Amino acid sequence: MTRLLVDNDTGIDDALALAYLCSVAHVQIEAVISTPGNVDVEQVAANNRALLELCGKPGVPVRIGAREPLEIPLVTTPETHGPQGVGYATLPDPGPITNANQDAVDRWIEAARANPGELTVLLTAPLTNFAQALRREPKLPWLLHKVVIMGGAFYYQGNTTPTAEWNTHVDPHAAKEVFAAYSEAAEQGLESEKLPIVCSLDTTERFEMQPEFLTKLAEEAGCEEPELVLASDAEGTLSKASNPLVRYLSDALRFYFEFHRHYDQGYIAHVHDYFAAGVAAGTLEYETRPATIDVETESQLLFGTTVADFRGLWGKPANAHVVSRNDPKAGFDELVRRLGALARKLDKDS
Questions:
Q1: What is the C-alpha to C-alpha distance for residues 58 and 126, in angstroms, rounded to an integer?
Q2: Using an 8 Å Cβ cutoff, are 181 and 130 in contact?
Q3: Is the peptide bond before 95 cis (omega within 30 degrees of 0)?
Q4: Three-state SS at 143
């Protein structure tokens, strides 16, 4: 059993990742911490709760963490993920969150202390909450089983500035603190396998989803009518799929396809967070390289840029493992199979 603490800013690709994790039998989601990023944190929490309900996991606790980055104003991205964060997808309002006043970071630390060496943390959002957790509990790197981060870009074009990736750019001070904490832990003898696994744009953008994915998903889910999402469709065309999970993902991803086309990348979608979720769940193959990572927070030109020293030129121990290889074809086959089975089950149980 893989026990996960998920920290996200849902987000279209966050939603795809969360739905996927709900489909993996050996994954137990202990809690979902909501972080501001793609949308404000209340909307993130609402998206998480509604999706967990749809995926048959209404009992998973959803908590609200920080409401803004550590030192700079929050910037959201409605042009990328839609005003509510999940494109054209809609679900019933889950209502106000319970235990909204409980400190999500403290609950996170309590869970790690109570289950030393057992919890994997998946971070597909700005690292604000994780930085705060490391401030309060410096031994967290030793208490966690594994940490997976979606963020950064190394020797690769950024997707927010020419050199900076979105999650890191939203809160670069938090990312800098996280990697500094792991540098200190490495100097104190933290085992290499406990260093964060970083899924940067260099490899996540290889997970380039084509609209045909949704046709395959609907077939796998047993939908009677084919699900066709075409570049020639009018923007905002909504899915008529009979299966609610297929319909939700189709409406979310159509917005993402349109966004990428607006930025001359083609009618495709980079599903970064799904790959990171597969790494955390242990279901996708990958290779890594050890590196020492730091984040630029002073330069206006390079603000939010991640820098990786792969050759030890700084004379510091590695503080992360950067993914260097993955297998998108096998990853998409896995995604169709798992989500299709979940969609069939949900349809049967409804």
A1: 25
A2: no
A3: no
A4: helix
